[in-house]
Specification:
7 strands, single chain, alpha/beta, seven-stranded parallel sheet
Length: 211
Amino acid sequence: MKKILVSGSGTNVGKTYFCKNLVQKLLQLQRTVQYIKPIETGLENSLEKDARYVSQQKKEHLFNLEVITLLKFKFPMAPADAARLEGFTLKYENILNKIHKLPKEKDFRIIEGAGGIAVPLEKSKKDWLDLALDLQLDMIVLVVENKLGAINQSRLAHQYCRSKFSGKLMIYLNNIQKLPNEIQKSNSETLLDLGIDTTENVSEIINQFQL
């Protein structure tokens, strides 16, 4: 099983949109996929949104896709704070154990974090990067909105990951809003010149695994 964490520079950068496209491409390649949302916040009606969105794939592919949401909270806040407002205390070890107990027969496991890469998951300050390390993941994809400021956000998130993680690491520049071509090109070229693996193409991330 190849294991990927999808995180980002912050919230509302398009992580779930990216995950849906990544899952779609893998299913088209006839790979089996397990998508996990360990924690989802901002669910007023208790219906997980991200897993449902990712599961919107062609019917013939659904047999090869498993979607799982482990913990759900109502308030649209950082995980530990959202849990606290509902009288629940997040424990990092419990999150790890829940993931460890999940079946491992799929070709790919995609874990989508909540918020940015450095969002703490409990009082001990453990975050999504720690989770990637403890689960011995193969790759981290950092989704960054492609806009003015993307270079700074990408460098900070990338440097933070590289402070602990030595595996595959890539920035995915997500084109949420239409940008002048000059800015879009500048973001990508500057990051590549800085030695940061960057793409706007989901297939390039899959190619890292030489399928």
